[in-house]
Structure formats: C-alpha cells, structure tokens
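Review form for a predicted model. The reviewer records the input and the model, then writes brief findings.
Reviewer: anonymous (R2)
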Amino acid sequence: MITDLEHIKTTIENKGVKASYQRLKIMEYLLKTKNHPTVDNIYEVMVKEIPTLSKTTVYNTMNLFVEKNIIKALSFTGVETRYDIVTQSHHHFICNQCHKIYDINTACSFMCDNHKIINGNKIEEVIGYFKGICKECINNKT
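Model under review:
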C-alpha cells in the first residue's frame, strides 16, 4: 500500500529534489490545504508538528519547490508572497472581506487557451486575479 508521503516523495524526487522529512511534510500540507499560504502561514502550522523546523527551512523549501516548478509563487499585493500547488495557468479571486484566495479556472480558459500571441507578443504565462466579495461572505450577510 502506497502512503501519501511515499507518493509525495516519488513526486518531488522525480523533479530532482531530495525528499527530506521537512520537505515531505511541507508538501503534504500544501496538497491538503490548497489555501495559497505564505511562508509565515506554513511555518505557524508546521512548527507545531515539527518543533525543530525553522522559518529559514520553510523559505528555502518554498524557493526550491518554485525553482523546480513543483509550486508557483504568487504576489498579489507586492507585499507578501503566497504559494500555489496548482502550476497550470489559472486566475484567482481574492475576497475583500475574509481575504481568502480561491482558484478560478473559467476566466482563464479564454485568456490562456485561445491567445498564444497577442498584438505580436508571444504569451508564455498569464497571471491575473479578481477582487470582490466571496459567496461565503455574501451568504453570511443574510
């Protein structure tokens, strides 16, 4: 029986990353939460499980995962970097009230799939986001 950690180990090793315990657990967290966390978010959760974990280890792991295209680094505000386990092109929705970030795939299909060249420019990546009020916050008002 293959465990989740064995699958994660195989996945990151296939990308050329040595599978340390900390890296495996960070990757497991990213796969389970999918909440576009910051390094601080990851550290706060993971240090409870791995008391010897340093914030530097989390930073280095995230940078390595980005370099190996295991995850994507996102900067919506220019102030903080968030990380996304989904590496395919897609957009995001940011709620102005609860500040949650959601993946949006429908808006991207037109912009990502149909336009490889725009005004003579070759498009290699599309990064975009929408801001507003999420359906959870709208429903909580009633």
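Findings: The first helix runs from residue 4 to 14.
Further findings: Residues 91-141 form a domain with the Dna Ligase; domain 1 fold (CATH 3.30.1490).
Recommendation: see findings above.
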